[in-house]
């Protein structure tokens, strides 16, 4: 399959910002004035350092440019336990941990009106979808401002754009305020909707799509996915870098090898096919180019912000696993698309006129069967998990649940935790009291504390006030793989800077994704709030 690629007048005085080129204490003799017109934040969903290293020899495009010409922080992690998409995008954007910004998972439970309510991270029934039908999304559950808010407060001439294949990613990388209520054109937040067959927004941000987005959406499925199968585009000298093309624990267990077509299961037509293949990132990057053109990003009197959350790697990884033939093909296609995108920025803004940050929202567990084949520990659980956890709580249903804060409830939670820990594939059970305490604890408890908000409980035993940590290598999914645990395969992520004022090299000092926002603020001369969990790295 050959997925297609993408291709007003603001005043153009650049803002000159002094950026010290020395990194982490290694300062040069003089400061050098650097013109930064645009900050581009790329979050490649489910991208791991292991994938970058394994396929490094095959990269010739955008990944090659970032790796060879950028500053790589080789020991970068998410410093929280619940490693899902929503907290993974909110954390680097705000510079604080999930316990503080409030996005503790993709969804969680809240005790309201004497019953448990499930809350999705960005769902907002008080808004409407713009460009489609139904309710919209907003950052109403996000408790703090992030870098795009700091930038807009710093200079009213700045513009911020956030794009993704997922609403969670684009909303949580965008501004918390400055939406439609502000009655301005400074903020643009869009994501791909299968039902609408195009990129949509929310009435939180604007009353209707601008013409340039509506025009882009015309026949988007036909341009990027319809009537095309996804064929492997791999030469013999790189194909061996992945696992063999098919194993029966991929995808739906049937469509486990190339080609993959819109009329195959598990795809439900061309638009759904687009949303789960490399075509999604192609469309997202093409819309990014349109936003640079239409809004003249990077060419105005103040620095602009462009967040691009690329979702295809996550969709492909969940179905086929991180070392699958499909994931290799997907990443090489993304490598080429990023190369085109950077060349576009060079042409329109000028090489050295923008800065790029690349990271990921989380990692992923390799397929358990693959781990076992390699001599490691891997276990796939299905229905037995839910049954065993329910058995652990048997006889305690009448006890006060997680909403109660008395001695009887605490005792009941401790009993559930003890029963859970007796299961051979459970490493630990942690009660609400343990997570809320400030007492000394092991490193895993500390990670869960950074993901803990007392009114927003996530996890399989949330209604009992107990968090469960499974044995490393244990997966609860029938086929494919997932993420969400505090082990390094889910927390270790790529983290690199490229462009204006960045000296190439590799830093081995441990850093955290909360460092992204304050570092970007330093590069653009934006004042960051005090009391962040992250720190500026330059």
General description of the model:
The chain has 538 residues and is of the alpha/beta class. The chain has two domains: 16-25 and 37-366 and 486-524, Alkaline Phosphatase, subunit A (3-Layer(aba) Sandwich), CATH 3.40.720.10; 379-472, no CATH class. Helix content is 32%, strand content 19%. It has an eleven-stranded mixed sheet, with helices on both faces. Helix 2 (62-69) crosses helix 13 (325-348). Mean pLDDT is 90; it is low at 5-9 and 11-33.
Give the CA-based shape. Answer: globular
Assess the beta-strand content as a share of residues: 15-25%
Distance from N terminus to C terminus (CA atoms, Å) equals: 42 Å
Percent helix among the residues?
25-40%
Number of helices: 20
**Domains, number:** 2
CATH topology of the largest domain: Alkaline Phosphatase, subunit A
Could you say what the CATH architecture of the largest domain is?
3-Layer(aba) Sandwich
Radius of gyration, in Å, reads: 23 Å
Overall pLDDT: 90
Task: Give the class-level CATH name of the largest domain.
Answer: Alpha Beta
Provide the spatial order of strands within the biggest beta sheet. 9-8-12-11-10-13-3-14-19-4-20
What's the story with the biggest beta sheet?
Answer: 11 strands, mixed
Beta strand count: 21
> Low-confidence parts lasting 5 or more residues at pLDDT below 50?
5-9, 11-33
Name the CATH superfamily assignment of the largest domain.
Answer: Alkaline Phosphatase, subunit A
**Structural class assignment:** alpha/beta
């Amino acid at each position: 399959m050959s997925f297609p690629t993408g291709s007003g007048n603001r005043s153009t005085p650049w803002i000159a910002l002094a950026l010290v080129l020395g990194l982490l204490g290694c300062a040069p003799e003089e400061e050098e004035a650097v013109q930064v017109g645009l900050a581009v934040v790329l979050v490649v969903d489910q991208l791991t350092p292991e994938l970058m290293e394994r396929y490094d020899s095959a990269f010739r495009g955008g990944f090659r440019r970032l790796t060879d010409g950028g500053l790589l922080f080789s020991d970068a992690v998410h410093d929280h336990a619940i490693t899902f998409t929503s907290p993974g995008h909110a954390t680097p954007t705000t510079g604080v941990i999930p316990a503080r910004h409030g996005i503790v998972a993709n969804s969680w439970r809240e005790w309201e009106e004497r019953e448990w309510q499930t809350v999705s991270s960005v769902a907002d029934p008080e808004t409407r979808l713009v460009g489609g039908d139904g309710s919209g999304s907003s950052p109403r559950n996000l408790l703090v401002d992030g870098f795009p808010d700091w930038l807009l407060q710093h200079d009213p001439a700045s513009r911020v754009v956030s794009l993704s294949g997922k609403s969670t990613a684009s909303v949580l990388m965008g501004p918390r305020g400055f939406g439609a209520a502000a009655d301005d054109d400074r903020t643009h937040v869009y994501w791909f909707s299968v039902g609408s067959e195009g990129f949509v927004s929310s009435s939180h941000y604007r009353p209707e799509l601008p013409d340039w987005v509506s025009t882009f959406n015309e026949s988007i499925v036909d341009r990027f996915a319809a009537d095309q199968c996804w064929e492997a585009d791999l030469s013999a000298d790189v194909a061996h870098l992945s696992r063999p093309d098919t194993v029966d624990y991929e995808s739906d267990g049937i469509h486990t090898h190339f080609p993959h077509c819109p009329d195959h299961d598990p795809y439900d037509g061309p638009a759904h096919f687009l949303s789960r293949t490399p075509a999604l990132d192609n469309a997202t990057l093409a819309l990014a180019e349109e936003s640079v053109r239409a809004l003249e990003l990077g060419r105005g009197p103040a620095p602009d912000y462009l967040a691009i959350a690329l979702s295809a790697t996550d969709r492909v990884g969940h179905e086929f696993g991180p070392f699958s033939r499909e994931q290799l093909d997907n990443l090489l296609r993304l490598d080429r698309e990023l190369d085109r995108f950077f060349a576009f920025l060079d042409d329109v803004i000028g090489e050295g006129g923008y800065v790029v940050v690349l990271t990921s929202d989380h990692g992923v567990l390799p397929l358990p069967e693959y781990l076992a084949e390699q001599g490691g520990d891997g276990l796939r659980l299905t229905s037995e998990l839910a049954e065993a956890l329910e058995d652990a709580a048997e006889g305690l249903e009448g006890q006060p649940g997680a909403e109660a804060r008395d001695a009887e409830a605490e005792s009941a939670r401790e009993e559930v935790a003890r029963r859970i820990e007796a299961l051979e594939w459970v490493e630990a059970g942690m009660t609400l009291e343990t997570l809320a305490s400030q007492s000394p604890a092991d490193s895993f408890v500390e990670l869960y504390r950074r993901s803990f908000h007392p009114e927003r409980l996530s996890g399989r035993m949330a209604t009992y006030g107990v968090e469960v940590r499974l044995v490393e290598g244990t997966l609860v999914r029938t086929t494919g793989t997932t993420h969400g645990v505090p082990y390094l395969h889910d927390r270790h992520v790529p983290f690199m800077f490229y462009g204006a004022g960045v000296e190439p090299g590799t830093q081995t000092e441990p850093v955290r994704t909360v460092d992204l926002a304050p570092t970007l603020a330093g590069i653009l001369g934006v004042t960051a709030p005090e009391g962040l969990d992250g720190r500026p790295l330059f």
